[in-house]
Amino acid sequence: MDESSFIFGVDLDGVVGDFYGAIRNIAAEWLNKPVEELTSDVSFGFEEWGIDEFGGYDRLHRFAVTQRNIFRDMQPIENAPAILRKLSNMNIRIRIITHRLFLKYSHCTSITQTVDWLDNYDIPYWDICFMKDKGAVGAHVYIDDAPVNIINLRNQGCKTIVFNNSTNRGLPGPRASDWFEVEKIVMEAREEWRTGTIGLFGI
Hints:
Blueprint: E1 7-10, H1 19-31, H2 56-66, H3 70-73, H4 80-89, E2 93-98, H5 107-120, E3 127-130, E4 141-144, H6 147-155, E5 160-163, E6 175-176, H7 179-194
Parallel strand pairs: 1-2, 1-4, 2-3, 4-5, 5-6
Helix pairs in contact: 1-2
């Protein structure tokens, strides 16, 4: 059996990279507010920060990418790079799947920053896919934090790990609060695959 064909589909923002910490600091500048006034207990879209009267999330996101290089400069989630290196060394195929190209006219910047960031932190990957329908990319197990992505993946029958944050409370497990828990779940999923109880999800 070729173990390198076991595929782990990995989201980046809020899972491998500390997107929420980075966007909070940038939003404080953009809104001209002390960062302490922006709660870290947010829902998806950050409506708690009052960004709608300043142009909404799309405008904040464009500023963060094109003016503050968020995808290049954000910090990684603790232990994520090391554990991804460990999993890759065990012949688990890391497939990055991210929906970072949802705003027009910033695709080149987003892609360049993403690849530079992955290289800078020595995060291994076999493939990188910029797309919205993550279930269309075959993987044996996925990890994501965005509720809409998790629900869509699971509706397609995809085994999906929820990476815990305030945006996805209430979604059922499997869940992981840190990357040591991620590693454990992925290794269990690979064992299921070895024994034939887990199939390849997606196309």
